[in-house]
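Quick one, T. Sequence first:
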Amino acid sequence: MNILVTRPEPGATATAARLTELGHNPILLPCLTIIAKPARLPETPAAIVITSGQAIQALPAAYQALPVFCVGDATAARLREAGFAAVLSAAGDAEDLARLIIAHRLPGTHLLAAGQRHGQRLAAQLRQAGIKTIRRAVYAARPVKTLPAATAAALATTDAALFYSAETVRAFARLTPPHTETIAALALSRAVAAPLQGLPWSEIRVALAPTEADLLALLK
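Structure tokens:
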């Protein structure tokens, strides 16, 4: 199958490699460009919270011994590869992450390192639960402005498109892509699937759980 990969780098290349291993032909169209943002981070937070693997590069080495809460297992693996020892994965979505953090209820300030417009709701949930939380924007996601001609042409023979975030869906839609009515849109979660309704697709399917393994299982 010809599969469109819309997530930003470095995830796009990693997903393309998995698709190739599965015998598919990946078509890369990262719809967002990730830009690091300088941020004043606390020296001694009690724990770190991240909602995306894009935040990992902003975490200093001094944090590697601290507990780190993250949304999914793929991000957890990247954190361990980066040297973080005490990683706790919610293996789900932001709601699962909130429940995990609240269940552990570690004393002290939690640093939520997130994207520029991300994490406000999670921070509010944690504060409401009595967990002291500070949020810092450590990266920004900028939508790409143009659809490459070669990619636009490839959409005519694309079987399915993978979507990992609602922000990516919106960026994709702004490119006014052709031929989507012949493509199956595969979404990581219901929240990701919601903005897909604005484009014509052959069908929209949602992963059973918000993990890449469950998303790729929709290709079978």
